[in-house]
Amino acid sequence: MTEHTYYREPFVRTPEELLDKKLELAQITKDDLIIDLGCGDGYVMIAACQRYGCRAIGYEIDSEIVEMATKAVEESGLSDRIEIRQKDFSEHDFSEGTVYLLYLTRNELNKFSLPLEIHAPKGTRIVTHDFDMPAWEPKETVEFPLMSGDTKFIYLFEK
Asked: How much is the pTM?
């Protein structure tokens, strides 16, 4: 009998200094619904909701990471504003959300380029770092130096 194992990339937490700039670039308000595809431990959504009073939905497929994110949301007191969905983010309804805070590869972003173009509401903001959205022209590109000495690129797209 052959054993099959599912390999997944571990989530990578966005450095806090970079997250601050991404949130600022997104121009989030209390009326926004943040979407985080591959939300990991929920850190990005928690920070956005604490700072701006918005709501958020995160998608995460790994049950252990979902538990970690759910616990972090509960501990932050934001269970009424943040929902964690344990499902593949490719099943997301792109008509939901006004701000997408993403850290996905260019290949993954390519998969969502057309659904976002077709279904996302006018005015939706998408903020990525390291990778841009294929077939979209960034509204703004920020070269951001980290304290570690690395430089990251942050991209703001608007529908």
From this structure: 0.90
DSSP letter at 143? E
DSSP structure string for 46-71: HHHHHHH--EEEEE---HHHHHHHHH
What token pair was written down for 58? 């995160």
Handedness of CA 155, 31, 159, 104 (dihedral sign): positive
32 and 54 Cβ atoms separated by less than 8 Å: yes
DSSP 90: G
pLDDT averages per 10-residue partition of the chain, 159 residues: 42 86 97 95 96 97 94 98 92 92 92 92 96 94 94 96
What contacts 45, CB < 8 A, 6 or more positions away?
34, 36, 39, 56, 57, 58, 73, 82, 101
The helix/strand count (H/E) of the chain reads as 4, 7
Taking the alpha carbons at both ends of the chain, their separation in whole angstroms is 50
Contacts of 50 (CB under 8 A, 6+ apart): 76, 78
Coil, strand or helix at 108:
helix
